[in-house]
Structure formats: C-alpha cells, structure tokens
Amino acid sequence: MINQPFSPVLDSVPGLRRLLRLPSQLLRFNPFAGDCLPTRVPLFQPWSGRPSLPFPHPWNYDQPIRILETYFWNADREQGSGRHNRYLEVPGFGPVLVTRDPGVIRAITTETGDRDGQFERDTLPSTGIARATGKDTLLFSNGASWRRQRMLAASPFGKTTLFQPEMFHEFAETFRGTVLQRLDTLRQHLASTGQQSARIALEPELKAVMLEMLVNNFFGAKLPYEEFRERHVPALERVIDHIVRDTVMNRFGIPVMKLPSFTRRIAQAKQDYACFEELTDVVLAARRAGAGLWKQFKSDAPDAALRSNLKVFLAGALEATTSYACWAITHLARNIPAQDKVFQEVRDIEVYTPENLNGAKYFSHVLDETLRLTPSLYFLPRRAPVDVWIETADGRKMLIPRGTHILLDVWHANRHEDHWGVATTGFPALEFAPERWARLAEQGSGSKEFLHFGFGHGPRVCPGKHLGQLEVGLVVGAFVKLFKFQAATPGIEAKAGVSTKPIDGTVVDLELR
Ligand code: HEM
Question: Which of 106, 280, 358, 501 is in the most buried spot, having the most CB atoms within 10 Å?
Fold first, then answer.
C-alpha cells in the first residue's frame, strides 16, 4: 500500500487541493488508477430508467437500496472492472466510489484502522446518529479515539468472556429464560383463542425481546417487560426514524433537543429522545450496582464519558439483532423444509452450551445464509484520508484518491450471481439456500474465503458479533422449537434505514408444534 503523506504546502491553504483538482474534474479524468478501475456514473441521466438519483435527497432518502442500485444500472452489460466498481464525481466535491466487488470490499475493510495511510470510517452517513448519541462513540470516531474505545469494549464483548463456560452458561440461561417467557405468552394467547393458528406481525415482539435481553440480561438492569414493549421500543423506533431523516434533512445540524417545540412532530421527537436518555440512565445505574456484564468492564471512566457509546449500543444493537432475527424467520417461513431441518436439530437441545450450538450445523448455515442474502447493515462507509493503493487477494490493484467517500455495497455484492451464483456455490445467488454453505465446505472453502461481511471485516469488525449471534440463535432456535410458521405474504421485499428489515413487519401464520 502506498499513500500520499501530508504536504505542508498543499495543506496550508484551505481548499487548495480541491481547487487544484477542479480542471481534471471538469475534463472528467478518471481520478482512480490501477488495473481494476471503476467506471463513471453520470449525475443525471434522464430517460435511462434508473431507479433514483445517485445521492440521497428529501424524496429518495428512505430508499437507500435503490440509490445503491442506481450506481449499478446497466453495469451487468460491462465486462471489465467497472461491472462491480463505479464512481460519481461532481466538480468541487470528493469522488464517491461504490463497490460490490467482494475482493475490493475485503481489501478496504482489512486496511481500515488508525495507522497512517489506512482508510477510516466515513462519518457522513452517520451524522444523524452522532447528533442523537454524541460524536465520541466507537461507531463515529476514528484514529486514536476509536482505538481507545475499541480496547475498552474488547473485554465485555469478547468471545473469551461470553464463551467462558461459566459466563456463557449464566447468560444462555438468563437469555433463554427471557425468550421462553415471552414466547410462552404468545403460546398461551394461541391456546386461549382455541384457534389452530394465528396471524401475527413479529417485528414489534422481537424488538421488545431483543431490547429486554440487552438491557436486563446483558447490562443487568431490571425493567419490566411491559415497559420495553409499550414505552421504550416505540420511542426508540421513532428516534431511529428521526435519525435517518435527520441525516439528510437537517441542513443546519441543530440537535432536536435544542429546537423549540413548534410542531407536534418536534414535541414528540423531544419526548422520545428524553425516553432514550432515561433508558441510558437505567443502564448506567446497573453499572454502579456492578450488575450483568458490567463486572467485566475494567474502566474508571465516569458515567458521562460512557453515555454516548451506551446509546449507540442500545439503538444499534436493537436495530441489528431485530433485523437479523426478522430476516431469519422470514426466510424459514418461506422455506418449510429448511424450517423442519432446523427443528430436527434444536428439538432436543435443552442446555445451551457453545458445543451444543456448534453441533447445530444446519441452523448455523441458516443464520449465515440469512446474513448473506439479507445483510442487516447493507453498506459499510469508508473514507480515504490520503491517496491509498489497495491490492485484492487475487492481485488486482486500485489507487483510491484522497478524500474519496466509499460505499462498500454489501447488499448487492452478496446478491450477485458472479460472486455467489451457481458457478461458484452451486445455487443461484438470489435463492435462500443454507445448503450452499455445506457445499462450499465440501469444496474446501467456507466462511473464511466466502465473506458475506454481515458483521463487517477487519479491525472495525462488529464487537457485538458474539453477543448478537447468541441472542439471535437463542430467539430463532426457541421460536422454531415452539411454533410451526409460514409466510402470510408472498414476496420478500426489504425496507432500509439504519438496517434492513422485511417490509411486511415479518407477518407469519403461527401454530403450536
Ligand atoms: C447480531 C446483529 C448484529 C449485526 C448484524 C451487526 C453488524 C455490524 C457490522 C456489519 C458492523 C461493521 C460496520 C463497518 O464496518 O462499518 C458493526 C459494527 C459495530 N457493531 Fe454490530 N452488529 C450486530 C450486533 C451488535 C451488538 C449486539 C452490538 C453491541 C451491543 C454492536 C455494536 C457495534 C459497534 C459499536 C460497531 C462499531 C465498531 C467499530 O467501528 O469499531 N453490534 N456491526
């Protein structure tokens, strides 16, 4: 990797670099170099049939997957590297690179970190999150501040802590207790109606269980379930919607709490943000009591210094785990043979140990396939702080110029026939086929070579991966064990904001096993 260091002359005059770049931007020179060049996407292309404009604006910000799709409009007609790598350049601004090439995604995620010449997380798409939670978070920060926070999070979230037999057992039991209690309410409801089956939208139910597990079981608080279900989940849902809208619409960058309550919408948003603060207080009170996994958190940082991060964990983890569980149930509801196979594996699991969960191979393939086909985080944002050369595992090189905003388009990479199709995995890329993972393993390649980036990759990989997998595994496993379920709507369409979810709210017809 080569990079262009800080230049005292060029960097002494603000905007000088941008000015020097203007002529080549106006002449439309490709600012990238190497042997896997991206091709240019026009800013406007009337009558082309493109689904959207290639940037978010007030009329398309709620359809981010269509914005990404716009970059690859007609790209399948190309044969070169532009088939999976595209860029947009508007004079006066830094280039935008969008890639659905797994080799390039891997190279960039591997080279993201706090060393000189490495990529950093692009904070532009998360300005709304930062306004809601604070800037000093693991998600938003870069450089030395990110490294410090990462080290602090390592112990409580690490596999060695969660999967230590004693710790794991304690968690698995409390998680399982929570899940079983909630599912039992559903079971009783079904039994009391005397009906064979009930139609139910699972997303709100799953959200409440996920938040309860995180707040009560992981962070050791003791809030009643009804409070999660009736108060905190609806408030957090509205905060998260507000965050997405705020990223595009809030041109003046004023946090909602500082706005006067002119409209009902602002008044409601202020109430919701206050409720979010209250939930954070509850979690911090558990810290003072040394409850839950706070025991593993070795830091004398004052509560105020942890607040922003806790808010990111609460909102982010709720979004990601709900998305993952909703998608897994959505796929199994449309694939009854796969559901039956999972049932055969989990029906006799009474004690949740890492070995038992590892033994449920087909189930773990279902979970991998879920994150591949419908990743919760559909793109990973990066930025090149200097000129950076990347090299893919198969030896292709690309120079990414300083200031480039990079969107690693995991959603489209994971769904393209070139990368995940019949020729490489034995099954069409757009099909939900957990069997592809067994087949890849037989060929000697598995999840190490075929990365779905569902938890990211490289130094900024998700620190909550093991906790999230445990939560989703327990919830979906317990659900399959208790109920037979099938889809109530035919297609599978995605809605996307901070994360993706099935557009129908995960409506299924349930019956007791
Ligand atoms: C099970 C569902 C989850 C999924 C699918 C998921 C996915 C991801 C992905 C893809 C990233 C990488 C983003 C990037 O590279 O730009 C990430 C980062 C992150 N995740 Fe998760 N996550 C999950 C659960 C959790 C949980 C339970 C927590 C915490 C309680 C958490 C906290 C974080 C944080 C703080 C980061 C930023 C890390 C950094 O930048 O160093 N996640 N997550």
Answer: 501
